[in-house]
Amino acid sequence: MVEFGRLLTAMITPFNPDGTINFPQARKLAQALVSSGTEGLVIGGTTGEAPSMSDDEKIRLFAEVKEAVGDSAAVIAGTTDNNHNKSIELSKEAEKVGADALLLTVPAYNKPTQEGLYRNFKAIAEATSLPGILYNVPSRTSLNMTVETTLRLAEIDNIIGVKEASSDFTQITTIIDKAPDGFNVWSGNDDETFPIMCVGGYGIVSVASHILGNQIKTMIGYILDGNLETAASEHKRLLPIFKALFWVTNPIPVKYAVNRHGFDAGIHRLPLCEPDQSFIKDFNPVMDSYSIDLPV
Question: Is 199 helix (H, G, I), strand (E, B) or coil?
Fold first, then answer.
């Protein structure tokens, strides 16, 4: 199995004032994240505002970020949506430009059966030689990928893990327990990293690691060392900002936090927009109570 690291960051996409992608800033951000604890980068996911990007933009972003980080971090390309054929085409293009893996997200809006989910991901996995990481996020898709479907897909050689954001700890624990060797489970929510890793989860695909990468990596280290009391203390210390980063729709809070810290991540693309003053008033004191790891 290819190793992608335990701390993966779902990277935001910097945009210029005119709404175009700021590719130089994307490269700089990727390098800054790696220098502050990130071991792999998920590019073109929800946090990256992928639904607002064209396929050509995504392909260039995969290529530019991979060129920027080289072998220092894996690049996991978000190539799937509710259009099956387009997902296959984009996955093939991601492989051509050097992506290390694919993020295989449960499609929104179609609402397929579990058999449809299985066939969809199986066909995408078979279309490239890249490893695939499944992504189950019912809050975004209105569809839960079940334990049974996940375990069926885990038998496919190049599907090597799942980002689980169902918040169903029975489901997540069962997947961890029943999955074949080499199939890893990453938490899909920062506030669930500690409990998921304590039952054998592999790591986290994080939003908070934009600003707290080294601190999250330290907590993961405590868990792996068996120092659960200290890890639990770190989890509780970080919990307020984990929660604050999701007070409104992701990635609005984290892009605000990165910009406020002094790293120019630019604007959002509509339909997303900047947070309102009520959010800022409540968020700033929370952010100010933490040291920020992202180099500027």
Answer: coil
Alpha helices of 4-73 — where are they, by DSSP H?
Answer: 23-35, 55-69
Close Cβ partners of 178 (under 8 Å, ≥ 6 residues apart): 147, 151
Polymer length of the chain: 296
User: Residue 193 class from Cβ within 10 Å (0-12 exposed, 13-18 middle, 19+ buried)?
Assistant: buried
Which one, of 282, 272, 218, lies nearest residue 12 by Cα? Answer: 272
Residue 111 known to be catalytic:
no
List per-block mean pLDDT (blocks of 10 residues) for the chain, which spans 296 residues: 83 97 98 97 96 97 97 96 96 97 95 97 97 95 96 97 97 98 96 98 98 98 97 98 97 98 97 97 98 96
DSSP 161-196: EEEE-S--HHHHHHHHHHSPTT-EEEESSGGGHHHH
Q: Please give the domain boundaries of the chain with CATH numbers for all domains.
A: 7-288 (3.20.20.70)
> 163, 202, 217, 255: which is the annotated catalytic residue?
163
Would you say 156 and 125 are in contact if contact means Cβ atoms under 8 Å apart? yes
163 is a catalytic site residue: yes
pTM: 0.95
Expressed in angstroms, the distance from the first to the final Cα of the chain is 34
Crossing angle for the helix pair 169-178 and 147-154, to the nearest 10 degrees: 30
- Which of 58, 66, 118, 135 is an active site residue? 135
